[in-house]
Amino acid sequence: MGVHGDEPGKATEWPGALDVRSLLEGGWRPTPIRDFILKVHSRCNLACDYCYMYEMADQGWRRQPRRMSRQVLEWTAQRIGEHARANRLSDVQVVLHGGEPLLAGVDHLRYAIETILGAGEPDVGVGFSVQTNGVLLDELYLDLFAEYGVSVGVSVDGDEEGHDLHRRRADGRGSYRDVLGGLERLVGPRYRHLFGGLLSTIELRNDPVVTYESLLAFAPPEMDFLLPHGNWDTPPPGRPPDESTPYGDWLIAIFDRWYAGEADVVRIRLFSEIIRLLFGRMSASEAVGLSPVAVAVVETNGEIEQVDSLKSAYEGAAGTRLHVSRDPFDTVLSLPSVAARQIGRRALSDQCLACAAHEVCGGGLYPHRYRSGTGFRNPSVFCHDLYKLISHIRDVLGRDLGLMAIESPAPVG
Ligand code: SF4
Fold first, then answer.
1. Closest by alpha carbon to 345, among 332, 322, 362, 367?
2. How far is the CA of 379 from the centre of ligand 1 (A)?
3. Whose CA is nearest to atom 5 of ligand 1?
4. What residue spans define the domains of the chain?
5. For an engineered disulfide with 385, which of 96, 146, 247, 402 has Cβ 3.0 to 4.6 Å away?
6. What is the value of pTM for the model shown?
């Protein structure tokens, strides 16, 4: 593993040579980390074939211990408390993540939560959430989550047929029936208040409206549709190098259904963020917009990494060579690869800067911009999809608000 830009052959790729000192001298200040993703367990009880953790470029999980040790949890808790104090943060968010975090066991997750709470100042709020595949979600876990107010997000890709296309066990059996059991427990009256939302990875072969309605049946407070990971070297499935917009069209079908129906009762994160941005507000998502990304990941062995979707780009792309046993989280903020995610339009390619949608699109999710040779200073591999989706939402809102649609040049990329 290495610092991004220090990888052999990567030093000339952007942002390998980004001069953080010059940025600081020019007045830029890093945004402290508020979101801490803890890989409490590095393996999974499913074997989804699109998983960036196990199926894509970075295979670093193979050398990770299965479970985060108590020692690493204690170091991590101290570092989070230290970072919050040093940066005078009023609150932080901790995501219990994996692999599949519930494989860590109820007692271990309780230890993680209590250790983090114990290491913080009383006036620093800690919000906990867990992102699970739902298979192990039983009353024991739900009682623990209820005790500490842990918000529960579940990954589900649609109806049984759509979900089981990818989300299978290692022996090939679909997981939908097991996920359904966990979800039904979560959405029942006793635990519904813990329901954070549903995450669904887009599969073009699945009907978008059927997928949306399948998720809607659980009445989630929020859902999000994730573009599958890919980049210019390894394009996402069904995304040919032309001006077609298969993902844009898929999402527009859901947007139109949602906007005409349930927009006031369920939040769809991607759409809500685009709408915020169209109204000139900051985004709270790294998928779109130019807001600084302030997230750190702690691997099960205590290594500090960047968002793990970067692992879809190349081996070591998320690495920092930092470790919670010796390095404060502030150290992360001085890395070129982290600064690159916090400098807004200065991180965009010339093509994006010339695009009328760039304030809203922000070049798309950072890992999707990767191309070997130039690095991350490229338009998103989903450029045409994003442009079409943003234009559509802008036009629908503009029509409703009686505003003129803004003339925009064609996207480039
Ligand atoms: S050129 Fe493409 S990726 Fe870049 S901002 Fe415009 S739509 Fe987004």
1. 362
2. 5
3. 358
4. 20-344
5. 247
6. 0.91
